[in-house]
Specification:
Rossmann fold; seven-stranded parallel sheet; 13 strands; 43% helix; globular
Length: 303
């Protein structure tokens, strides 16, 4: 008898990373099922062979149906953009999904979270929530592969678009000190490669992989590199008084992002987001692009 293909569930299919992951998973020898609050919007974007089921991570009964027969579930849900109390909603969503995955006998959850040191008492609410979601998924007893990433560099990525819009619009920037915070961003293609590779990782229990480019840079460096590639002359003036709160207001004035989302992202920029564990490089054959190449691809992808 022919082998029955594995069923994979993708949540967050309408998001930036999830939307790009669909095409890659459709090339895999799996039955792909996507969870969507509005299936009619998603169906035109997927192949006929891809299942689209109605469901919501905040509505547990819909998850039981969606997860039936699923081997691997991608959890790419983040409710920050939709609510001021995103921490509460993200916690509830993760608890709902973890419990439903356990009931359904799911073998693996693949989750994309954020970098940042758990021991940092000043870890931003955004990053703290990302880590809490990973912990909730692991505590379900379902094997969870968590990738922790910093800024995703790619045309359409919200954090990249914030940096791009800021640089495009302001020749002279009065910058808060967080622009000197070290970070290791990662190209979106590399994030996708890790997510796809996680499906075939040998089952060895839950694991956390920190992923990033080989370059440790600052947000100021990212602005300068983007400006250099676009032929823009930009001056950065650093001051100690521009708080994350004021930075959020400032970004809301000069970028397309909403105030709430911008403020939460800015709060996260004050924390170092660097790879402190090289296990991902030891486990996977993926070698992420450097920052220069990642920005080149992002610029090309927007044209």
């Amino acid at each position: 008898m022919p082998e029955v293909p594995t069923t994979v569930l993708l949540t967050g299919a309408s998001g930036y990373v999830g939307g790009r992951l669909i095409a890659l998973l459709e090339q895999q020898p799996v039955v792909l099922r996507c969870l969507a609050r509005n299936p009619d919007k998603l169906r035109p974007l997927v192949k006929d062979s891809t299942e689209v089921v109605r469901g919501d991570v905040l509505d547990p009964p819909t998850l039981d149906v969606a997860l039936q027969g699923v081997h691997t579930a991608y959890y790419l849900v983040h409710l920050m953009s939709g609510a001021q109390d995103f921490e509460v909603q993200d916690r509830q969503a993760a608890q709902n999904f973890a419990a439903a995955a356990k009931r359904a006998g799911v073998q693996r959850i693949v989750y994309l979270g954020g970098l940042g040191d758990d021991a940092d008492p000043k870890l931003s609410p955004h990053l703290r929530s990302r880590h809490e979601v990973g912990e909730i998924l692991r505590e379900s007893g379902v094997e969870t592969i968590e990738f922790r990433a910093g800024m995703v560099i790619g045309a359409g990525s919200l954090s990249y678009q914030l940096m791009k819009s800021l640089t495009d619009r302001l020749p002279i920037m009065i910058c808060p000190r967080w622009l000197t915070t070290p970070t290791q961003p990662i190209a979106v293609d590399d994030v996708l490669a890790y997510l796809v590779a996680a499906r075939e990782l040998p089952q060895e229990g839950s694991q956390i992989f920190e992923i990033g480019s080989p370059d440790v840079v600052t947000y100021g460096d990212l602005i300068r590199e983007y400006a250099r590639q676009q032929g823009l002359r930009r001056w950065l003036i650093f001051v100690p008084v521009l708080t994350p709160y004021l930075s959020g207001l400032w970004l809301a004035l000069v970028t397309p992002a909403t105030y709430e989302v911008g403020r939460h992202l800015i709060e996260g920029l004050k924390n170092p987001t660097v790879v402190r564990d090289s296990k991902a490089l030891e486990t996977f054959s993926i070698r992420p692009l450097g920052v220069k190449e990642a920005i080149e691809r992002a610029i090309a992808g927007a044209n």
